[in-house]
Amino acid sequence: MSTSSFLPIAPHDPPRNAIAAAIVRFYDTHREELDAARQFVMEHQKEFIIGGVIVLLIGLAIVAPTALAYFLKAIGFAIHGVVEGSRAAAYQSAYLGGHIVKGSWFALSQSFAMGGTCISALPWPVTVLGVVLIVVGITVLVTAAK
Q1: Cellular component per GO (predicted)?
Q2: Which of 21, 55, 58, 129 could serve as 137's disulfide partner, Cβ 3.0–4.6 Å?
Q3: What are the two backbone dihedrals, phi and then psi, of residue 81, each rounded to the nearest 5 degrees?
Q4: 69 and 31: one domain?
């Protein structure tokens, strides 16, 4: 595989920035190893797809609580209760009134936002790990699917 097919840079056109130049140098220097790795992936495509799905699901499981916490915050569930003037407050006022049924989605959402019975958002290093696992899982799947 030529460098020009690896990067959208014409062979006669020098890379315009240091990052592109570094990528081209890395690929040119490690072409044989990269081709061998690509061949290995193709020979074990089924295993890589299964592994990619597993890594992706683990990443999603790690990121989901934090994503849910931010979503609930965005619609008006906060650590001190439902935020006045929010979508959650409008829904509560229009459909629920003052009676919130125990175990309902509204009660569970508020419990989660307040750090109650549900898992709350995870510390940022754990969330970053989840995002990295998602990226790795997607990368493995895309590589194995080629």
Answers
A1: membrane
A2: 55
A3: 130, -170
A4: no
Domain that holds residue 34: 1-40
As given in the structure block, the two tokens for residue 90 are 């409008």
- Condensed to tens digits (0 to 9), the pLDDT of residues 80-132 reads 889 999 999 999 999 998 888 988 999 989 888 887 655 556 788 888 999 99
Rounded distance between C-alpha atoms, residue 143 and residue 141, angstroms: 5
CB 44 within 8 A of CB 36: no
> Do 51 and 35 share a structural domain?
no
- The C-alpha atoms of residue 81 and residue 78 are separated, in whole angstroms, by 5
Report the sign of the C-alpha dihedral through residues 37, 42, 47, 51, in that order: positive
Distance CA(37)–CA(15), nearest Å, equals 25
Do 49 and 34 lie in one domain? The reply is: no
Domain count of the fold of the chain:
2
Same domain? For 83 and 63 the reply is: yes
Residue 114 and residue 63: Cα distance in Å, rounded? 18
